[in-house]
Amino acid sequence: MTTATSRPGGPAPDALDGDVGFMLGVVFRAYLKAADAATAGIPGGHRGRHVLAAAVRDEPRSQSALAQRLGIDKTVMTYLLDDLVDAGLVERQPDPADRRNRRVVATAHGREALAEVDRRMLRAEDHVLGCLDDADRQALREMLGRLAAHVNHIDPVADTCALVAEIGSRG
C-alpha cells in the first residue's frame, strides 16, 4: 500500500514525512502534467479552459469581471480571449445593459470543445487520483474546496500572473 509518506520503491525521506508543501507539490506536478495533455488544443491550456467554462456557464458575463474572477491580468485576458476568439470557441458581444462592456459568450463549437476537454480532464483526474476510492475523492474535493475558499478569503489573488512573478523572484 502506498501512503502519503511512501512511494514506489520505498518510503519518502523522513525530512519530508507529513510536509504539506512537498505532498501538494508532488500531486500538483502530476495533475498539471495530466491536465496539460487533457487541454491540448485549447488556447491558453488550463486558463483557456477556465475562461471557456465560465463563458459556457455565463459567469461572469463581462471580460473585466471574468479577468477578476479568474485572477488573470486584464492585458493577459485580452490576449487569451483573442486566441479563444480566433479558435472559434468564444465571441465578444456588446453587453445590452452597458454597451461599453463586452460579454464573453461561448460558441456552439466552444461548448462542444469544452465537453470533450471535460471528458479528458475526468480521465486525467482518474489518473492522478487513481489510488483513492470514490468516497475519498469526494472528501478530497470537499476539503480542497473549503481550503481554497478559506485561503482566497484571507489572501485573495487578484492577479495570478503577478503572484507567479513574485514567487519566482523569491527563489
SSE pattern: EEHHHHEEHHH
What Rg is obtained from the alpha carbons, in whole angstroms? 19 Å
Which percent range fits the helix content?
A: 55-70%
The averaged pLDDT comes out at 84
Distance between the termini: 35 Å
Task: State the strand order across the main sheet.
Answer: 1-2
Please count the helical segments.
7
Bin the strand percentage: 5-15%
E-strand count: 4
- Biggest β-sheet strands, sense, barrel: 2 strands, antiparallel
Contiguous uncertain segments of 5+ residues: none
Tell me, what's the shape?
A: globular
Give the helix/strand class.
mainly alpha
Please give a structural write-up.
This protein has 171 residues and is mainly α. Helices cover 61% and strands 11% of the residues. It has seven helices and four strands, in the order E-E-H-H-H-H-E-E-H-H-H. It has helices spanning 20-38, 45-56, 63-70, 74-86, 108-128, 134-154, 160-170; strands spanning 6-7, 10-11, 90-95, 98-106. It has a two-stranded antiparallel ribbon with strand order 1-2. It has a two-stranded antiparallel sheet with strand order 3-4. A hairpin with a 2-residue loop joins strand 3 and strand 4 (98-106). Helix 2 crosses helix 5. The chain starts with 5 loop residues before the first strand and ends with a helix. The mean pLDDT is 84.
